[in-house]
Design brief:
It is built from 4 helices and 7 strands; from the N terminus they run ββααββαβαββ. The chain is α+β, with helices and mostly antiparallel strands. The chain folds into 2 domains: 34 residues, no CATH class; 116 residues, Cytidine Deaminase, domain 2 (3-Layer(aba) Sandwich). Strands 4-3-5-6-7 form a 5-stranded mixed beta sheet, with helices on both faces. A two-stranded antiparallel sheet has the order 1-2.
């Protein structure tokens, strides 16, 4: 996407020309995503949730992603790994383990969106989280949280005692 917003010398953002709501959201997502680059530390569930809202909240179908972290909980990368339909995505723990090992991750934050807008976890969400956690535990990689992104809210498994 061509730059629709520029940062001026005072550190404020300005539009070069009128933009649509979708363009503004995309630009905001790019600015937010730039804050979550390699080496940045995840310092709170709230900051991760805000990032994930922009990274996954605009998807029209279910997308499952993982924030891979080093031993100091600094970001290695965020990757969208699985795409599904409007209400489900097939997620394979083996593929998450392979990718985590390839990146030398020590911990992960799991995330996916609910295009329905409702962020409450389903039984399938709880089951896959447990399967992923069990698979990663075998290779000493911690699952710190699983965040479900809804239309205007997020659900944290860790904050609700499910991890």
């Amino acid at each position: 996407m061509e730059a629709c917003i520029v940062k001026n010398q005072q550190g404020r953002y300005e539009t070069e020309k009128p933009v649509t709501k979708e363009q503004l959201i995309q630009c905001a997502a790019e600015i937010l995503m730039a804050q979550f680059q390699r080496g940045e530390e995840i310092c709170s569930a709230e900051s991760a949730s805000r990032y994930l809202l922009f990274a996954l909240g605009i998807e029209e179908r279910e997308v499952f992603g993982v924030i891979f972290l080093d031993s100091q909980h600094r970001i290695i990368t965020f990757e969208k790994l699985f795409w599904g339909t409007v209400n489900a995505a097939s997620v394979y723990p083996r593929e998450i383990v392979k990718r985590a090992l390839a990146l030398n991750a020590a911990a992960v934050l799991l995330a996916h969106n609910h295009p329905s807008g409702i962020s409450s976890p389903s039984e399938a969400d709880k089951a896959i989280t447990s399967r992923i956690r069990d698979a990663l535990t075998v290779v000493d990689i911690r699952v710190l949280d699983h965040i479900i992104v809804g239309a205007d809210s997020q659900y944290s498994f860790a904050a609700n005692g499910l991890i």
